Amino acid sequence: MTQVSIEEYEVADAAAGPYALTTGPDGALWFTLVHSGRIGRLVPGEEPTSHRLDPGCGPTVITPGPDGALWFTEYRADRIGRITTDGVIDAFDVPTPGCGPFGIAAGPDGALWFTETAADRVGRITVDGSVTEFPLPVTGAFPSAITAGDDGAMWFTLNQGNAIGRIGMDGAITRYPVPTEAAAPVGIAAGRDGALWFTEIAAGQIGRITPDGRITEFPLPDRTAKPHAVTVDVDGTVWFTEWGGNRVGTITPDGSVTVHDLPTPGSEPHGITVGPDGALWTALEIGALARITRISLANSAT
């Protein structure tokens, strides 16, 4: 049996809005400050720093790129940003105006793939800034998070289309409807079991989809918890945030769920990732990052 220890580290004021985070190649956590237009950096045990962008650009999701830099979406500016580990920033316009780029992830082809929430498209950007866009076969679907699958394709959530999408490196798109009506999938991550795991923010469930499109849904103890983001740790454990429940949780492949309350009420957890120190870290919109470590009760017994 295990319990968790949760510590919070203030990285910005409450109005700045830490939203998503990832581990960079430099052994630091990099995170977006969506409301203040900044990219933050935190080495565990040190003081946070940040880099200024256009104040209103709305940096949203951030991910390591194949070129050793960090790449991020600028939701309000319709741009894809790039920041090196020493703080040099570039930005690349997405051709479609008003597209609202959101999710971004490195693909198996050496490029970055991203979603365009307001334009019903998936985009691809090379490390030199060349952008290609792929229209979805539906409208109003609000493509959201995206990740690379073990099958050599990119998988993404269709928040308003109530489906999971798959796009191959040739641009071919397949949609898989989520069984629960109006479940509003958001976060998605590749598991170590060959499947993809995703959150259903409106249904209070965690979903699992196999590469051939078979979906299993697991209801959470609190169906109003609004699960938001999901990640997988080195042991294959699936972790998720409950934005509405102020909790983080885990789920096993057979659907066993454990949830843990965050220390500060109303902290609004969003992104979650494995940190450079092996712990789980989540971004709290109140201006902090939370560090989650597992404690074995057998080892702590006296």
TrEMBL record:
Residues that, per the record, bind substrate: 228
Cofactor(s) required, per the database record: Mg(2+)
Stored SUPFAM superfamilies: Calcium-dependent phosphotriesterase
Pfam families: Vgb_lyase
Active site: 270
Residues bound to Mg(2+): 268, 285
Top enzyme class: lyase
InterPro entries according to UniProt: Vgb, Vgb_bact, WD40/YVTN_repeat-like_dom_sf
GO function term, MF aspect, one: magnesium ion binding
EC identifiers of the protein: 4.2.99.-
GO biological process: antibiotic catabolic process; response to antibiotic
Organism domain of life: Bacteria
The entry's keywords: Antibiotic resistance, Lyase, Magnesium, Metal-binding
Subunit composition and interactions: Monomer.
Its job: Inactivates the type B streptogramin antibiotics by linearizing the lactone ring at the ester linkage, generating a free phenylglycine carboxylate and converting the threonyl moiety into 2-amino-butenoic acid.
Family: Belongs to the Vgb family.
Name the UniProt record assigns to this protein: Virginiamycin B lyase
Organism: Streptomyces boluensis
Classification of source organism: Bacteria, Bacillati, Actinomycetota, Actinomycetes, Kitasatosporales
Gene field: vgb
